[in-house]
Amino acid sequence: MQFIAASAQQSVLKNTKHKNQFELSKLTLAIRNILLGTSVILMASPTSVLAETSTSNTIELQEVAVTAPAISDTQSVNGYNAKRSTTATKTDTELRDVPQSISVVTQDQIKDQSVQSIADAVRYVPGVQAAQGEGNRDALIFRGNQTTGDFFLDGVRDDVQTYRDVYNTDRIEVLKGPNGMIFGRGGAGGAINRVSKEAGWDPISQIMASYGAYDQKRISADFGQAINDAVAFRINAVYENSDSYRDGVELKRYGVTPTITVKPSDKTKITLGVEYFKDEHTSDRGIPSMNGAGNSSLKNRPYKIGDTDQFFGNAALSPNETETKAFNAMIEHAFDSGLTVRNRLRYADYDKFYQNIFARNSVTNAGTVQFGAYRDETDRENLINQTDLMFDVKTGSIEHKLLFGMELAKQETDNKRFQPTTGSTNIPGSTGTQPASNPFVPTASFAVLATNRKSDVDVTAFYMQDQIVLTPKWQAIVGLRHDKFETDFTDKIANQKIDVSDNFISPRAGLIFKPVEAVSLYGNYSISYVPRAGDQLTSLTITNSSFDPEKFINYEVGAKWDVNPNLAFTAAVYKLERENVLIADPSNPAANSILIDGQETKGIELGMTGNITDKWSVIGGIAFQDGKITKDILAFNTNGTRNPGSDILKGAELAQTPTRTFSLWNRYDFNEMWGAAIGVVSRSEMYAATPTASQSTILPGYTRLDAAVFAKFNKNTRLQVNLENLTNKEYALYAHNNNNITPGSPITGRATLIYDF
Fold it and tell me: What distance in Å separates the CA atoms of residue 705 and residue 723, rounded to the nearest whole number?
């Protein structure tokens, strides 16, 4: 009995050590006294005790109340190295055990680099380039494929053409390669998922205020706390009012996102949230290119890239406004049988318009340029519901993590485009030119309705996946998704209605070998499809409505190595093929189109994230890409005659796909108060658009240096200063086409005060 008492004491002490948040002092003392007292009584008078026990087997103990604060599962990743994700497989899985190249931009990285946009966030992600998006929307290029639609919020599609703020974002997950099995249509070269800040039981009260060059002003707030043991609340808000290094370019945005989390039991979790976000800014399409010698339009260069402030067009007549109203809900329940059910619902109403006046051609050798203009209006409603069933099964020595899911989506889009009225100054259709060195400001009024389109899309998808542990060293993942994609498309001007129904089957298969626990070697095969309506569902025509969707096939092998718990290396080698590219039929171009296999990207990506020492944190990556057109794509005029100058020839390099990119961010903390960081971003030259037989523009390569200084004055107050382009490098940041090129900012900086109250 003494042995039993001692063992019980050790068990209680061990439990207390691991759950020190619980108030166990009274319970521990009571149990200890009972056990010690029982031992003494037994040793002193075992016979009498046994006699009493025979008359009564019940011992009444005093009731002890045990309380503890609820533990939150919504804390941000600590540092730069994320370990897990629920997006890539829809299950909670270590990134090391996902056979795919994934980069995670954590909350610490977002703050340290003063990230305020998606373009900022991917700056240090290997294999991903930001594009200009005509100055009115996020646009990314994954492995040679540009997209404006492969954006997700908590795994649910968020695809309207707009700029996304990160004020309510906990982290950003960048998934490279086709992701059709998880996300459905699109995701041809990759996808980007924002993970929302969620209400939890860790109290947070934080204000961030920034002021920077060009009168940049921004303030955001993050407040959350538990209401009781079952309910927690959080609200995030932002306001920004800033100018730019570009003349006449302004930005104003504000948003608020309250969320609530309810845990009626340990097995059930409900999150609800709404968002209102308004973005107003100037649509800036940058500068044109400059024709080469002899007025050649091959290998043009940006025009006066050092004149970073000159606006080509009319900034005052280039407004952009987007209003987002959204509701999100998630409920998850774990049954005693081992089955977990999760349902996500998102309703979003987007209202957007923009108009712009911009350079529509290159600057000639005579120094002249022409301008174009239009106004675009889009209303979109998304209603998307995802239901996932997850459970674990063991067949002999083989373990399975099974996923079965269904997605139902309805998207309604109305889009109108207005062209300038006849007589507007130097806009499409006019022959007038202006001197590029000192153009007068063109004007336009928009009263000619050029397009009026409506699309109603219904998606019904079913998917299943099995994550298999074959042995301690071998794992596999196999999945299959079927999408039924129904499009009702109406051209209201031409009075044409097109109904199209597509069925996609998107597989994924991966194999993982773990020679040791910290290392994963993998191979992966996946397919995605992009329907003829495009990633914005507004480009369907009679000509292409009967053709199969574009197909993207990815082959990838790679390695992931956790050098230590806080430092990870990744490597990936891939080949991405694009099939079913639509071109005019050379034998009858006026009447027919054909599909060809027309594009291929090969590449290597290397990445590093985490802590080299307790004081030295790093984010780095290098990527080598070779993106080419694999077959001639012939061009024809609307009347069917050949236009060989616009042919895209076999071997042409893909748009904004540099052969080399490199980035490295280092933060070093000298002591508890002071820290500093230095960053470098570099890329080789690239084409602004895929070159044709007669026209191309090269964006020269560049290397840019950034830096930051961090000061922590006390536990509540931090100050950081971020500097960008320390050497005042003149360079082209990105482009939309050959004559919409954004010059990089000259040296700039901002100071940010972070106060926790």
Answer: 9
| CB 645 within 8 Å of CB 685 | no
The first and second tokens of residue 157, run together, are 């599609």
Contact between residue 15 and residue 9 where contact means Cβ atoms under 8 Å apart: no
**Rg, the chain, Cα only:** 30
CB 231 within 8 Å of CB 260: yes
Distance CA 505, CA 104 (A): 28
Instruction: Give me 685's structure tokens.
Output: 């030259």
**pLDDT tens digits for range 556-587:** 999 999 999 999 999 999 999 999 876 666 65
Q: How far apart are CA 35 and CA 128, in angstroms?
A: 64
The three-state DSSP-derived secondary structure of 52-94 is HHHHCCCCCCCCCCCCCCCCCCCCCCCCCCCCEECCCCCCCEE
Angle, helix 25-44 to helix 46-55, in steps of 10 degrees: 110
- Report pLDDT digits (tens) over 190-203: 999 999 999 999 99
Query: What is the C-alpha to C-alpha distance for residues 81 and 174, in angstroms, rounded to an integer?
Result: 14
Spatial distance between the Cα atoms of 566 and 570, rounded to a whole number of angstroms:
14
Confidence at residue 392, expressed as pLDDT on a 0 to 100 scale: 95
- The phi, psi pair for 36, rounded to 5°, reads -65, -40
**Residue 642 scores a pLDDT above 60:** yes
C-alpha count within 13 angstroms, C-beta hemisphere, residue 23: 8
28 has a pLDDT exceeding 50: no
**pLDDT digits over 686-697, tens only?**
999 999 999 999
The three-point CA angle 264-269-275 to 5° equals 115
Tell me the two tokens of residue 444.
Answer: 């336009």
Q: Which of 251, 257, 277 is nearest to 170 (CA)?
A: 257
Is the distance from CB of 401 to CB of 467 less than 8 angstroms?
A: yes
- Which residue do the tokens 């005509």 mark? 134
64 has pLDDT over 80: no
From 223, 236, 234, 228, select the one nearest 271 (Cα to Cα).
Answer: 234
pTM: 0.88
pLDDT at 438: 80
The structure tokens listed for 406 are: 């269904």
Strand blocks (E) in 421-445: 434-435
Structure-derived torsion over alpha carbons of residues 642, 648, 651, 655, reported in degrees to the nearest 10 = 180
- With 0-12 / 13-18 / 19 or more C-beta atoms within 10 angstroms meaning exposed / middle / buried, residue 707 is middle
Distance CA 193, CA 157 (A): 9
